[in-house]
Design a protein that fits this description.
Number of strands: 12
Distance between the termini: 39 Å
CATH architecture: 3-Layer(aba) Sandwich
Order of helices and strands: HEEEHEHEHEHEHHHEEHEEEH
Number of helices: 10
Low-confidence stretches: 1-12, 70-81
Helix content: 25-40%
Mean pLDDT: 89
Bound molecules: S-adenosylmethionine
Shape: globular
Structural class: alpha/beta
CATH superfamily: Vaccinia Virus protein VP39
Oligomer: single chain
Number of domains: 1
């Protein structure tokens, strides 16, 4: 299957900028609150097995570009900082550092070299090593496999952090159907969907198929395009399509999440690039109906709490 992510340099695992730190900080704060809440309210009969699942787990570390706040032309004195890089701990490393601990950590990563790096992370994880499972293969298939298990005595937080348009709607539905998994998902409304959904509506058949897979059906065409009829002086009618803006594309995806999950955070965080261009939406959906209101309240607070 073609990779619909952005072309990225691989050596070492390198991507993102300030928005990378932003999403990881929100995730980590949620994980800490989550394990704390589950620890302080153990089920009287049988405590839940708590898992952290990272389905685009990466290598454990990230070499991220430091991101400037304003366009270069406005702050020329900062130009020297343009190529600065910083090593960040990736989502897998951060999840392992969260206390109270999870009972299990499942890292899914397609790329062999990144898995090798995750193996090193596991070797260095001390007593946590035996709780860590590293899986290869495609995230969608692996997640659907995990979701088909019995989730009655399990709870999990799942992080879906793809480069591009890889997360399929069938996977989202399977996650929601467990009613046991809280989901953080990066939806590439700016760098993925917004580019494939061309202004005119003309696009290759392969893009249509990918959009169907990501949104779940062809309804996106009706929801995200309006038809305009124009009549010229001779009475000839031409029909043109016009696409909604990026914000509405994001809203549509979040509303789709709300159709299958117990509850979603209404206002996902917009992650922007160095010049303020929207790249991704960080969305949250709560799986378990009993804990959903509290989970969304917490996620909403984290999504709205800007520390920059
Ligand atoms: C944005 S990076 C993840 C970064 C990670 N969350 C972190 O904080 O370090 C996306 C990762 O997903 C992996 N990947 C891409 N397509 C995949 C797929 N279909 N299944 C599993 N992993 C995939 C890539 O190799 C890459 O390591």
């Amino acid at each position: 299957m073609p990779d619909y992510g952005l072309p990225m340099s691989d050596e070492p695992h390198r991507f993102g900028g300030r928005w990378t730190e932003e999403k990881l900080e929100i995730l980590t704060r949620y994980l800490k609150a989550y394990t704390t809440a589950l620890q302080s309210k153990p089920s009287p009969e049988r405590p839940f097995v708590k898992a952290y699942i990272d389905a685009f787990a990466g290598s454990g570390h990230i070499l991220a570009r430091k991101q400037r706040r304003a366009p270069a032309s406005l702050l020329p004195e900062e130009d020297d900082a343009r190529d600065e890089h910083a090593f960040l701990e990736g989502s897998a490393q951060r999840a392992l550092a969260v206390e109270p601990r999870f009972d299990r950590y499942i890292f899914i990563e397609k790329k062999g070299r990144h898995r090798a790096s995750l193996e090193r992370v596991r070797r260095e994880a001390g007593e946590l090593a035996s709780r860590i499972e590293i899986r290869g293969g495609d995230a969608n298939e692996e997640i659907r496999g995990l979701c088909s298990r019995n989730w009655r005595s399990r709870r999990a937080v799942l992080f879906l952090d793809p480069y591009g348009m890889q997360v399929e709607w069938r996977t989202i539905e399977a996650v929601a159907a467990t009613r046991a998994i809280d989901l953080w998902v990066l939806f590439p409304h700016g760098i993925g969907a917004g580019r494939m959904l061309t202004r005119s509506g003309e696009m290759p058949a392969s893009w249509r198929r990918r959009l169907d897979l990501v949104f779940g059906d062809r309804d996106w065409e009706r929801a995200l395009y309006s038809r305009r009829e124009q009549r010229n002086l001779f009475g000839d009618v031409t029909v043109t399509s016009e696409r909604v803006g990026l914000e509405a594309i994001g809203r549509y995806y979040n509303q789709r999440l709300a159709t299958v999950f117990a509850k979603v955070a209404e206002h996902p965080r917009v992650l922007v690039g160095p010049t303020g261009t929207p790249l991704y939406l960080l969305c949250f959906a709560a799986g378990n109906p009993r804990g959903a209101a509290l989970a969304v309240k917490l996620a909403r607070h984290l999504l709205e709490d800007r520390r920059d």
